[in-house]
Specification:
- 21% of the residues lie in helices and 33% in strands.
- It contains 6 helices and 17 strands.
- Strands 1, 2, 3, 4, 5, 6, 7, 14, 15, 16 and 17 form an 11-stranded antiparallel sheet that branches.
- The protein is elongated.
């Protein structure tokens, strides 16, 4: 039985190293009888928050914080460290509000390039949005598929523009749809949303919110579903703090830049999704909520980089009872 950890502090620890370790949700557990298996997905980022894919990992270790004195507070690695190969479901959400006239062609090209260069295990869903206050309008251009030709055609068909920017409602609706995608026996799919916009959540220049849902509701939904948000935006007319908060508080990534760099922005966000690793450990935790961190050893720099604390649940105590020593 896989038990998803509740959202917690899944962030990097600032150790002064230019490389940071981010533990990604969901951390899952499995009862192996005498031990508890803990599977930890993680990614490596540089000091600017960009994904790193040119390092060689030599070892990953886990350290438990909530075990009694004298108990075993570390775990054994039970499988080779490798990039995650589980199915990955990604929804690309594209703003087609009225202000997108000059950028739409470049956005289509950036989305098309992302789809074409993605690994075979990635399934994409393409959604566009616009709307009026209290009346968001979302359209599914292509449901989840690995068929790159169908995805390219769906992206190329995005032509007509709408009205306002219902950004929060678009993400909120896609979180509900994505939560039910990829449910299969013995497989824990990864999921993420890439949400592009060129402006603020409002109707034209009236400064009236277009969405019915607030940023707090969007973040709460993403955290409860363990789906990270990768927010993309054009610098200039954005509230950059909004995009950054949506990403940071859901363990995603915010990438913001000029129109001339749209392909690079999409590529940077997608690299953060796919360049993830996984380590599985056999541990002996106490029953209930446990805190832990991982240490990643890197061959390129000789560094050992530590993550921030993360949490997982143990269905029972696995701490072995000490054998009495005869007098």
């Amino acid at each position: 039985l896989l038990l998803a950890a509740a959202p917690g502090a899944l962030l990097a620890q600032n150790t002064g190293s230019p490389i940071q370790v981010f533990v990604m949700p969901p951390v899952t557990t499995r009862d192996n009888g005498s031990t508890l298996g803990v599977r930890v997905p993680f990614r490596l980022l540089d000091a600017e928050g960009n994904s790193i894919d040119n390092v060689r990992i030599t070892d990953v270790r886990i350290k438990l914080l909530d075990v009694p004195p004298g108990a075993i507070d570390f775990g054994n690695l039970t499988q080779p460290i490798e990039q995650i190969s589980a199915p990955l479901y990604v929804t690309i959400v594209i703003d087609i509000s009225g202000s997108m006239e000059e950028e739409l062609a470049d956005v289509r090209n950036a989305a098309r390039t992302t789809v074409e260069r993605a690994p075979a295990n990635v399934l994409f869903r393409i959604v566009t949005f616009h709307g009026e206050t209290g009346n968001p309008k979302l359209e599914t251009r292509q449901d989840f598929t690995t068929d790159r030709a169908s995805l390219r055609n769906a992206i190329d068909d995005i032509a007509e523009l709408g009205s306002g920017t219902c950004y929060f409602d678009a993400i909120y609706a896609e979180l509900d749809r994505l939560a039910t995608a990829g449910v299969a026996a013995n497989v824990t799919p990864r999921k993420a949303i890439m949400a592009f916009t060129d402006g603020r959540d409002m109707v034209n220049d009236e400064r009236v919110p277009c969405s019915r849902h607030s940023i707090d509701e969007v973040i709460g939904s993403a955290r409860s579903k363990l789906i990270p948000l990768y927010t993309l935006g054009l610098a200039g007319n954005l509230d950059e703090n909004v995009l950054t908060r949506l990403a940071n508080e859901t363990q995603g990534m915010a990438v913001i830049g000029p129109q001339s760099e749209l392909s690079a922005l999409f590529g940077q966000a997608f690299a953060g999704i796919v360049n993830q690793y996984e380590a599985e450990f056999a541990v002996l935790p106490d029953a209930g909520r446990n805190r832990a961190y991982v240490e990643v050893s890197l061959a390129n720099t000789g560094e050992v980089v530590r993550s921030a604390l993360f949490e997982f649940d143990a269905p029972r105590s696995y701490i072995a009872t000490p054998t009495p020593v005869p007098p």
